[in-house]
Protein: ArsR family transcriptional regulator
Organism: Streptomyces lydicus
Amino acid sequence: MRLDPAALQRPVPPGAPEPLAEPDRDALRLEVVMGALSDPLRMRIVRTLLLESEAFDHTCGWFGLDRPKSSLTHHFRALREAGLIRQRQYGLERRSHVRVADLEARFPGLLGLVADWQE
Amino acid sequence: MRLDPAALQRPVPPGAPEPLAEPDRDALRLEVVMGALSDPLRMRIVRTLLLESEAFDHTCGWFGLDRPKSSLTHHFRALREAGLIRQRQYGLERRSHVRVADLEARFPGLLGLVADWQE
């Protein structure tokens, strides 16, 4: 699937908190990104965020995943630390979106493979 | 980097042994392939085989990697079981090449990302 980064990345809403710590675009590593996607649940999270988002960012709960919250927190953090998603803290909850522009710039076509992935 | 699968995959030489057990093209899984590439040494092996081959297939020794043979055997097997390389047993030694046509058919562009990878 060919993706249009501009269509997939919504503008940052006014008043959004600063992103949590994450690697800069230039520090993204292909083997680290692929390692984060080697877990089917994490692959599914990224694919769902990429293709089914209806807002700027989403909480863990939005995915409807039947896993303990601590497990989801771990997986979302792994995706953020690998550079796949950006997370912001809104009070007690974190919301996430895919770093489409950064990933397309560094690893063109990778998110298209994720979009084509089937469980 | 855009790769030309036809240019990268040499024909099977007459008399080559049958390949060792491997997943069929249709059974390849993106998350498994990415998991195998999440180790920098394995990424390097695939990239080297892809871009620097001067024969149909290559032994572990050809790579000049400074690792114990048992460790290399493990990494090559992981790559084969994930579907990235095809291995054949020639007497006491195994030789490997990248499954370019299968990978391009299933995950177009993935090997181009590997080719562009920098250590």
